[in-house]
Amino acid sequence: MTQTDVRRSGGARLWTRDYALVLGSTLLVWASYYGLMVVMPLYATKVLGGNRAQVGLLSSILALSSVPARLAGGWACDRWGRRPVQLAFLALFVLAAFSYPLAATFPLLLLLRFLHGVPFGGGTTACMTVGSDLVPAERRGEGMGYYAASQVMAYAVGPPLAFFVLARSGFDGFFTVAGLLAAGSLLLGWLIHHPRVSDPTARFRLSAVLEKRVLWMSLMGLFIALGYSGLVTFATLYAGQVGVSNAGPFFTLYALSVLAVRPLVGKLFDRHGPSLPVLAGLAGMMAGFVLLTCWRSPLGFHLSAVLYGLAYGACFPSIQAMAVGVVEPERRGAAGATLFAIFDVGMTIGPYANGLLADTRGGYPLVFLTGAAVLVVAVLLYLTRVRAEYEAQRR
What we know:
- The protein contains twelve helices and two strands.
- It has helices at 17-47, 52-80, 82-98, 106-133, 140-191, 206-209, 215-239, 248-272, 275-294, 298-324, 332-358, 363-393, and strands at residues 3-5, 196-198.
- The protein is mainly alpha-helical.
- The chain has a single domain, classed as Growth Hormone, Chain: A.
């Protein structure tokens, strides 16, 4: 029998102990991930002698393995419950993070990134599923907005911490810190009183792991990811070309901008629907890419982080809230897995393709302008399919 006694901790109350714990667990696992993400280009080029295409491949290979892990993880959350799935994947994430000092050659590093994608995909999907369970339906936009903000707040922790530790303790020192951040996420996850939502009769089949009701909004996520992957993969290397020696403040400004916009956008979503935050966010991300390309100075570099952060903070969390808002509680795992698995398809294609673009005459500016161009497709998807389907299916 399907269990749906989702813990609401007092009706429409949002800020509960367990909700705070899942936000903390999410922040720490993403801080570990983002720290590793900005360090990988430096490690690959300075220590292992890699080129730009190989740098992109490191991000692509992790995203590639995370796609099936997300689908399996979402189904497992719905089948066996949230707690065992979340804790198992987070434990594997800790093991992978501590293993990076062993990757002394590029092929070994590539293999480890591929293996690391499995607990990353499954663990973050499980965290999102738990977070969506703990949010009252009438405050879904606000609650999922804060959840998404915890992911982005990790930008304010992971990359600056990575550069700080790197300057003082080198790559091995940072890899230890990345493992400790992941261990903190596991500890907080263990302390959560997980909502009891499961369907013991669910079989592992395509219709169980993919939620077709969120496919079109997930395709929007794919096109967002194509541009986003170029930004997060190459901003660290592009910084040097515009006179910025430390890219850490770029990621901090991005994170603070997302945090600043989320409370307003979450309430706007709950009162008036998703159209304004989604469309304004897509337009703002396009403008951020253009600014990053055309104003090649430290000021332009950092202002583009603010603009892109405000826009991303309005758009993608609203898409997340839409996804969990059109399905039953016992299908939220599959909905979240579908959204992020297709997002990760973009994160698989994007870094390597953007690396190839970066190696052409157009360089990094071509990467960022391409990121702006593909967002036009996301706008068209929303206007022609997603908006109408959401209004017809929302719960």
